[in-house]
Amino acid sequence: MLIKEITADELRRMDNKEGLVLQGCGGDLKEWVDGINDMLTEEGILLNGSKFDTVYSFENKNLTNLLYPFDDVEVNVGKLAVWRIATHPRFNGTWLSDYVENSLGGYIAKEKQKPDCELIGKDGNIFNLMGIASQTLRRNGMSDEATEMCSRIRESGSYESALCIIGEYVNITGPDEDVDGCFSENRQ
After folding, report:
1. 72 phi and psi angles, rounded to 5 deg
2. What is the rounded distance in angstroms from the CA atom of residue 111 to the CA atom of residue 98?
3. pTM across the whole model
4. What contacts 143, CB < 8 A, 6 or more positions away?
């Protein structure tokens, strides 16, 4: 069993996870984890010998809290929901998503990664470069960004401004660069 200490900000970046948060867990955290695992097993909530092996501990408002993530456990969510409501006065349990929204101000938005786009060495006509960058964005599931970029480029006042706008949306690369942006050793 692993009890990993994290910060509230790390919790706010877990928008792709769900779990059970118990608030105000004083004393030995190992006893909490073992006790909850046993209790949920007895209630038929943890299935097929499944246990919470990794639990996260975090502090908020001078309380020690535990997150039991649903990643690697087989759980009867319906029974867990009923158990959580029935034991709320005792454990102050809530879902991770509810806790983050109501107690931490919501999830921290992740910045989208800019895709690499080979523009160096291409025909420098701004509409050609805009088209290549737009196709790259669309191939990477960023159609809204492609539309926004093209609109901004058409409204820009200069070639230099248009290039800067393209650079906000894609990583401009050349034919002699590898994926991390460094020149390859086979350059001629």
Report:
1. -115, 30
2. 22
3. 0.61
4. 137
